[in-house]
Design brief:
mainly beta, ten-stranded mixed sheet, six-stranded parallel sheet
Length: about 210
């Protein structure tokens, strides 16, 4: 099933729990969303603050359909996978889906395994199938003149390819490189030094999908 709940209930009160339909818009700032089953359907997840989105726990899967989106806003938000028994947890993107990263002043959050506190021990095998669009927004980032690198996705197994890449809010005198690495199973964003670019945006692949 799918459960949405605040992580820090009032003293003496139980954490609120509610079923979340796959068609819902899910806006999380400081709470936790957890998918413990097979999630499929149209949805829009917006994650910000210190919110947590467990897209899949051990044995669960999340299908991001055409027209659906996951937006990870800010550097404190956590999205990805956790579990207690080492089972597989999978995010499958589909054509027309959108995975978006929005920077705050210090940079980006990432899609990866993280210790949510929902399990006594944290052990899971994470995977993602890329498809659809990758969107990156640098508008709120407090630009550092030096070259920068962020890991946006970090899982145990990554397959598939993005269909499109969009980067907004980048200075015209910098270049951006998105590297989809099937050897390390990561997606990284690298910005050139300030003044050493012309607004060029590239996406390259390493290894085999």
């Amino acid at each position: 099933g799918v459960v949405g709940r605040p992580r820090k209930p009032r003293p003496g009160a139980d954490a609120a729990q509610a079923d979340v339909a796959p068609s819902d818009e899910i806006d999380l700032t400081g709470g936790r969303f957890a998918n413990t089953g097979a999630f499929a359907g149209a949805t829009g997840i917006s994650l910000g603050g210190d919110g947590q989105a467990l897209l899949a726990t051990s044995g669960a899967s999340f299908d991001l359909r055409d027209g659906s989106s996951i937006t990870i806003a800010g550097s404190a938000a956590k999205a990805g996978f956790d579990g207690g028994d080492g089972g597989s947890a999978v995010l499958r993107m589909n054509e027309g889906a959108d995975l978006a990263f929005t920077a705050d002043e210090t940079g980006f959050g990432k899609l990866a395994e993280f210790r949510s506190g929902a399990f006594d021990t944290s052990k899971v095998t994470s995977g993602i199938r890329l498809d659809g669009n990758l969107s990156i927004d640098l508008s709120e980032w407090k630009a550092d003149p030096k070259a920068q690198k962020w890991v946006l996705v970090d899982v145990d197994q990554m397959i598939g390819k993005f269909d499109d890449l969009t980067i907004t809010g980048m200075a015209r005198n910098r270049d951006a490189l998105v590297r989809v690495d099937y050897v390390s199973d990561t997606v990284t964003l690298t910005l050139s030094d300030n003044g050493q670019g012309s607004g060029r945006v590239r996406m390259v692949e390493a290894g085999e999908a």
